């Protein structure tokens, strides 16, 4: 097991802190690292895609889990896969897809580990129908503060605290996931343009498109132009998709589920840090204008590979470097159905302030997850990336927090890097239970992160 | 912990009655800061400052700290860090001295040098060690434009700040990659209660402006901050003026 001292940040490259990094390759090495942790505790870290400080532990230990990356067993009779926590979803999909299996929940990036996905209870674009990842975890191996490995099953308090628990209940070492069958490695995509936010929300709820039986397409998300002003405020492009049937593949490829690969695996050289001003207001507005105009007004039946549909942004190497030296801040919040007015107000405020907001995405959530700190609750969720260098951005986002909290909404803790502790506590009513369970299970505070210190989780 | 914008949740001020430090504390409390330690010699002014910051909603505690008593620094500051993480340490103590008198009385000059330099070296190293152990944090060092080039009018004070400035730069390099940031702040002449009534210097500034520059510097993770910013350009020119000429300049 290699050990070194490194300065770490999240994907957003803000608030660096230093920790001793362990790279366990077996369960035993991970247990040894947890037992040998210093007084400032330990936290597990995967591929470092959390934009905030969830996988940092200043002055303490960080367990880099990417060395623990075996796909242990694929049971095709029950449709389950057993794997280590350090396996990336991208790699898992490369193993599963040729055999006709697919993950029931796929987040916006494939470069996230199974452990990280469970710890932040990720969701996909089909959340209203599918729910979040915790629903498909049959069991997981959790390394707790005493250095023991426990098998945790759904329906227990520890399971609900761990899924979405941001790694603070222990180190997830491995998990068994339930899979779903897909007919082909391609996705049939329909795209439509919406002229403003009302139009966009209406198109979302109308649930048009769909397969031959008229059922709505399961995957739906929209890109929102947050720089558009006036009557165009909140205009966007809505994209829906469903797994294409095997008949779309050429006959010779049907058995092997082969498809053109558009997103290559990692291994590119790191890109340069661009000057922060490059992605300013003007260039962002021009880019958004071009993106909106170039989207088809309405198109159905376009075939894309799963990689291109689910993880198009992974094709852009080092996308986090685009925002300059100060890094990026991701703001992701949800407001419930019936609170669309609050969503309107937030979008108007962002648009009026002319923030160069990138990656702005709108999705819908269905039933909430049982995870105590899980993010999804029924309603709308908007995600945007902002350059951290914008003056006064901290206060501006605090203002948005107030708007969101007043509407009964919440921000996503796994992606947060700036919320006030009292705001977070108000947004997550089950935080008190979470703290109690942690105090009981881990009285000495073996598992800590910068996020936990900042928000007093 | 600091947030993504460098706004700290806890602040330790060395030199708790400094106007610049208090202006900075007020700004940081308006952002995120909830715990403030004011370190200084016990005085009514220190208690007043603490009460004022408490009124703004922060949990403020005072601690007995004397820059000249270097033997106690490790113990006093160690206790503060033992109570919990400190996100930003602001080293704001220092005395201006009186150039004319200090030239006559070497002991008074030594006091300026010991407070501004020796005291800061000791306290700075103690804080840097503690910040390094916690793996994050910022050490903000209040230097001065007077340390950049010797002037007839204040070279005793200026030389002490020059020493402090060089020390802080080196410390910043030593702490590269440890998660700890050292930020050197070089204000021009600052108009405070002490300088009220004196003729105004060119490119002078106010405690509020310095505080604003410190908050911006924390956000940008800057290594050096000039207040006002134009001083950076002015001083880079003045630094190269030949001495016979510099002596005659009205600075």
- Supply the CATH architecture of the largest domain in chain A: 3-Layer(aba) Sandwich
- Share of residues in strands of chain B: 15-25%
Low-confidence stretches of chain A: 209-213, 262-271
Helical element count of chain A?
13
How much helicity do the residues of chain A have?
10-25%
Query: Strand order within the widest sheet of chain A?
Result: 15-12-14-13-17-18-16-19
Strand content of chain A: 15-25%
Molecular structure report:
- The complex is a heterodimer of chains A (about 450) and B (about 250).
- Chain A is globular, with a radius of gyration of 21 Å.
- Chain A folds into three domains: about 1-65 and about 440-455, 2-Layer Sandwich (Uridine Diphospho-n-acetylenolpyruvylglucosamine Reductase, domain 2), CATH 3.30.43; about 65-180, Uridine Diphospho-n-acetylenolpyruvylglucosamine Reductase, domain 3 (2-Layer Sandwich), CATH 3.30.465; about 185-250 and about 275-420, Vanillyl-alcohol Oxidase, Chain A, domain 3, CATH 3.40.462.
- By secondary structure, chain A is of the alpha+beta class.
- In chain A, strands 15-12-14-13-17-18-16-19 form an eight-stranded antiparallel beta sheet.
- Chain A contains 13 helices and 19 strands.
- Chain B has about 250 residues and is of the alpha/beta class.
- Chain B contains nine helices and seven strands, in the order E-H-E-H-E-H-E-H-H-E-H-E-H-E-H-H.
- Chain B has helices at about 20-30, 45-55, 75-80, 100-105, 105-135, 155-175, 205-220, 230-240, 245-250, and strands at about 10-15, 35-40, 60-65, 90, 135-140, 180-185, 225.
- Chain B has a seven-stranded parallel beta sheet, with helices on both faces.
- In chain B, helix 1 (about 20-30) crosses helix 7 (about 205-220), helix 3 (about 75-80) packs parallel to helix 5 and helix 5 (about 105-135) runs parallel beside helix 6.
- The longest helix of chain B has 29 residues, at about 105-135.
- The N and C termini of chain B lie far apart (about 40 Å).
- The mean pLDDT of chain B is about 95.
- Classes of the chains: A alpha+beta (about 450), B alpha/beta (about 250).
- The interface of A and B includes residues 16, 58, 326 and 420 of A.
- Chain A: It comes from Streptomyces stephensoniae.
- Chain A: This is FAD-binding oxidoreductase.
């Amino acid at each position: 097991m290699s050990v070194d001292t490194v300065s770490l940040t999240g994907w957003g490259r803000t608030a660096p802190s230093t920790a001793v990094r362990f790279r366990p390759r077996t369960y035993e090495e991970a247990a040894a690292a947890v037992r040998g942790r210093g007084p400032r505790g330990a936290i597990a870290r995967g591929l470092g895609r959390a934009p905030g400080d969830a996988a940092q532990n200043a002055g303490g230990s960080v367990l880099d889990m990417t060395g623990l990356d075996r796909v242990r067993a694929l049971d095709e009779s029950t449709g389950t896969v057993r794997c280590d926590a350090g396996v990336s979803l991208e790699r898992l999909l490369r193993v599963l897809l040729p055999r006709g299996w697919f993950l029931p929940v796929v987040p916006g990036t494939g470069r996230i580990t199974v452990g990280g996905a469970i710890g932040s209870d990720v969701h996909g674009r089909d959340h209203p129908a599918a729910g979040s990842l915790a629903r498909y975890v049959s069991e997981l191996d959790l390394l707790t503060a005493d250095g023991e490995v426990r098998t945790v099953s759904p329906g227990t308090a520890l399971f609900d605290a761990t899924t979405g628990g941001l790694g603070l209940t222990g180190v997830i070492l491995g998990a068994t996931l339930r899979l779903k069958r897909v007919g082909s490695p391609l996705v049939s995509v329909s795209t439509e343009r919406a002229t403003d936010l009302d139009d966009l929300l209406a198109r979302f709820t109308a649930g048009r498109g769909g397969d031959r039986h008229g059922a709505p397409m399961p995957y739906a998300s929209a890109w929102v132009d947050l720089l558009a002003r006036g009557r165009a405020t909140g205009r966007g492009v809505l994209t829906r998709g469903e797994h294409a049937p095997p008949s779309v593949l050429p006959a010779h490829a049907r058995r092997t589920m082969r498809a053109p690969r558009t997103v290559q695996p990692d291994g590119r050289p790191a890109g340069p840090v661009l000057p922060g001003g490059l992605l300013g207001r003007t260039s962002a507005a021009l880019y958004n204008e071009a993106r909106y105009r170039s989207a088809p007004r309405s198109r159905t039946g376009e075939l894309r590979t799963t990689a291109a549909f689910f993880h198009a942004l992974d094709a852009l190497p080092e996308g986090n470097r685009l925002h300059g030296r100060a890094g990026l801040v991701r703001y992701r919040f949800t407001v419930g159905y019936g609170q669309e007015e609050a969503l309107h107000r937030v979008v108007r405020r962002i648009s009026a302030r002319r923030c160069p907001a990138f990656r702005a995405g709108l999705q819908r959530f269905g039933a909430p997850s049982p995870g105590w700190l899980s993010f999804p609750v029924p309603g709308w969720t908007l995600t945007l990336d902002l350059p951290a260098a914008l003056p006064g951005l901290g206060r501006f986002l605090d203002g948005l927090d107030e708007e969101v909290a007043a509407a009964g909404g919440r921000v996503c803790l796994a992606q947060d890097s700036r919320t006030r502790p009292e705001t977070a506590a108000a947004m997550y009513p089950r935080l008190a239970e979470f703290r109690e369970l942690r105090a009981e299970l881990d009285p000495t505070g073996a598992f800590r992160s910068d996020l936990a210190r900042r928000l007093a989780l | 912990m600091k947030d993504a914008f460098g706004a700290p949740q806890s602040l330790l001020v060395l030199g708790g009655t400094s106007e610049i430090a208090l202006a900075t504390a007020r700004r940081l409390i308006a952002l995120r800061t909830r715990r403030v330690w004011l370190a200084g010699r016990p005085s009514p002014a220190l208690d007043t400052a603490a009460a004022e910051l408490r009124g703004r909603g922060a949990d403020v505690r005072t601690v007995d700290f004397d820059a000249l008593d270097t033997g106690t620094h490790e113990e006093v500051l160690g206790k503060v860090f033992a109570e919990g993480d400190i996100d930003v340490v602001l080293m704001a103590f220092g005395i201006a001295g009186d150039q004319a008198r200090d030239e006559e009385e070497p002991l008074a000059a030594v006091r300026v040098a010991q407070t501004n330099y020796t005291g800061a070296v000791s306290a700075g190293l103690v804080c840097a060690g503690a910040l390094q152990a916690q793996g994050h944090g910022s050490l903000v060092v209040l230097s001065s434009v007077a340390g950049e080039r010797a002037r007839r009018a204040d070279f005793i004070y200026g030389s002490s700040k020059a020493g402090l400035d060089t020390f802080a730069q080196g410390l910043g390099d030593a702490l590269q990659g440890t998660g700890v940031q050292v930020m050197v702040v070089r204000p021009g002449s600052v108009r405070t209660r002490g300088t009220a009534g004196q003729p105004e210097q060119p490119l002078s500034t106010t405690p509020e402006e310095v505080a604003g520059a410190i908050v911006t510097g924390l956000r940008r993770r800057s290594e050096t901050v000039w207040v006002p910013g134009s001083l950076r350009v002015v001083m880079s020119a003045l630094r190269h003026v030949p001495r016979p000429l510099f002596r005659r300049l009205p600075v």
